[in-house]
Amino acid sequence: MEIPLTGNVKDVNLIKILVYLNRNRKTGTLSITTPAFTKNIYVRAGDAIFASSTYTDDRLGEMLLKTGRITVEQYDKSVEVLKSSSKRLGAILVDLGYLDPSDLVRSVTHQAREIIHSMFHIEDGEYEFSEGDLPNDEVITLRLSMGNLIHEGVQRLENWTIIRNEMPDMDTALKLSADPFSLFQDLELSADDRNILALIDGSRTINQIIAASGLGSFEALKTLYMLWSTGIVEQAAAIQSVPGDKDATHTKSAGDTGLNEILQPHTEEQDTLLNKVDSMYSKINSLSISELLDVDENSDSDTIRKNFYRLAKEYHPDRYFSCPDSSIKAKLTDIFDAITKAYNRLNDDRLRREYFRPVPSKDKEQEVDLKNIAESQYRKGLMEFKKGNFWGAADNLRWAAKMAPQNSKVWKHLSLTLSNIPGRLKNAEEALLTAIKLDPFNADYHADLGDIYIKAGLKKRAFRTFQSALRIDNSHEKAKQGLEQTKE
Known about the structure:
With 488 residues, the protein is of the alpha+beta class. It is built from 24 helices and seven strands. It folds into four domains: 6-133, no CATH class; 149-240 and 250-262, no CATH class; 266-355, Helix Hairpins (Orthogonal Bundle); 361-486, Tetratricopeptide repeat domain (Serine Threonine Protein Phosphatase 5, Tetratricopeptide repeat), CATH 1.25.40.10.
């Protein structure tokens, strides 16, 4: 559902905006302005990574005072130093010995979360989402899923009217979502949350769920509001009631996905997760959609759906928050998108029959012809490159890449060629990133990418790229030299 990117939160509440930004993987700054202050949430690829505020009580010093992390005397001293310094208050507090660096990171993270949670209480304020680059100086990133940020924000709401107005009619039946992106997102649910979730079966109404929860009406409704807002539950189709049958058997939803499966936490070690993601990511462009879902022409819809839900849970983009590798979310997103596209095709009976229909031999002959053409263009490209004819080589290698898009060597040599043509470094980077996507454990490719970043003047990025190459092959000479060259 599209929502306007400017407006007032009394017409479009903050939760709807955040969910929209998350689902559409937006990057930019969301601002809410009132006569008293402006508060900002910085969003990267759909995740809230930081926050800032012009409200006095939201400043770091004031928050540290309120939480007892510093004394009034320490606060006054740090503010005095701040007046004659270009440093931020946090750095000054560390310099003065009032905080250690780890305390500072925790405190700034707490500050950002508190600012975001306070924004849930704004009932009248103009909002605007400005899509584009984020401020470079906001370096501390929240490690919390959007679902958990919304969960925490809702738990602090005390306005019954706001929550009641956002929920559907109290006689509406709720069911678990059929969307794995919503269903398997990272949410830290309490025991009360889980008990209420267990009552949602596709036939119980909101009123019935609240009555059976054993909680107060307001607390139960808040939990339902959180589950509704984050998309874990949705409205069920109307159910024909049977007179006098108040205890009728309830039917599970979400494709018979069991509650235990949804709530089962991920137990994999971080290294295991990273290796699994890298392995799947390296194969997604070479696997057929049936191989991706591990099904064949004899698989029924139930098997296809179960395999899809299993993979959707394993490779949900929310699984990256504890990982130090900043590329992990992008990889998980690509994998999740690939398995979703595969499911959407194979879950349709007509499309599934077409997919498994035998391919005429003529198509196989054509495939062989394309490979031969690609090989010929590749050889010509290498010959032109050796002659120094980089433009000609690039043309040949582009043709080879079109004919054989899964051949990482073609993309690698296209990148090398483009890097020798003035003004084509960005294209060279894109070609080499494609090669790395196809063959992520090739240290040569990572080292070559480091060279491109050096040419582009991106020394820090080059340093990190050479580090990646050495993690794959710790004896890689080119990467070692590049690392020395880009050390600060």
